[in-house]
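User: Hello! I'm new to structural biology and keep hearing that structure can be predicted from sequence alone. Could you demonstrate with Plasma kallikrein? Please show me the input and the output so I can see what each looks like.

Assistant: Of course. The first part below is the input, the amino acid sequence of Plasma kallikrein. The second part is the output, the predicted structure written as tokens.
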Amino acid sequence: MNKIILIYILISGISLEINGDESSDFPFEAIPRVINGRKAGWGEFPFQIGLYNHQGFSCGGSIITVNGKQLILTAAHCIDKKLDPRFYHVTAGNLFRNTKESTQQWRQVVKFAVHKDYNKDKGHINDIALLRLHKPFAVNYYVSPVSLPPRGEKIGITAVVSGWGITNVIDPTSNALLTATITVWPDSICSAAVPFYDPSAMLCAGSYRGSCKGDSGGPLLDKKTNQLAGVVSYGVEFCTKPNKPGFYVRVSSYIDWIEEQARDL
């Protein structure tokens, strides 16, 4: 009985809607932002990147290395496959999005791979993409890749999210890189909260702190291992309210896909 009450409390009152340029009947918003977080420190998230398109800031992402090749991991919904890859560019090494800093590096995207089975209408399943840049970032204290988890690795109960997304439901995206420590929810409760939840490919976390609009594609770290456990995918409309989780791509389930795509990028 207590478990039933807990699940009801966690999922009751959830109001969801899609957020993006394309219309959809799926009742979720593909998000990007960190809610109720703190400002990140210099060098704290050296793998965090900002993804820009021809219209400006778009999403977050993470620098990774696969078989010696430096790539960017982000969300599929951040990439418009109809656009030439050169419509996108990436920055790293900066804490403030609207300020040009001496530590900042800029790179052009020259090729991307979006998961062929990404489906925004069914829970944003397979919401993952890889980007290749015109040249690798120079690795230093402010810019360096994040470690990927082993295949099938289960995330711990505590995670860390970061991004330049909106800081509440009415404000614009943040100029400062923000971070928050959040709780990973049990798959049983995530599955009860939303349709189309696939625990083999997704995880959910958050509540009063977490990701929201503007953080899409960004990193979710396993606090215990400091490995890249998730990619910010989507969330609920009222991101600042308690018991409203964010949803993430489970990176450990996509190691084979990442390695396969990396060979062709």
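User: So the tokens describe the shape?

Assistant: Right, they're a compact way of writing down the 3D structure. Reading them back into a model, for example: The CA atoms of residues 46 and 249 lie 21 Å apart.
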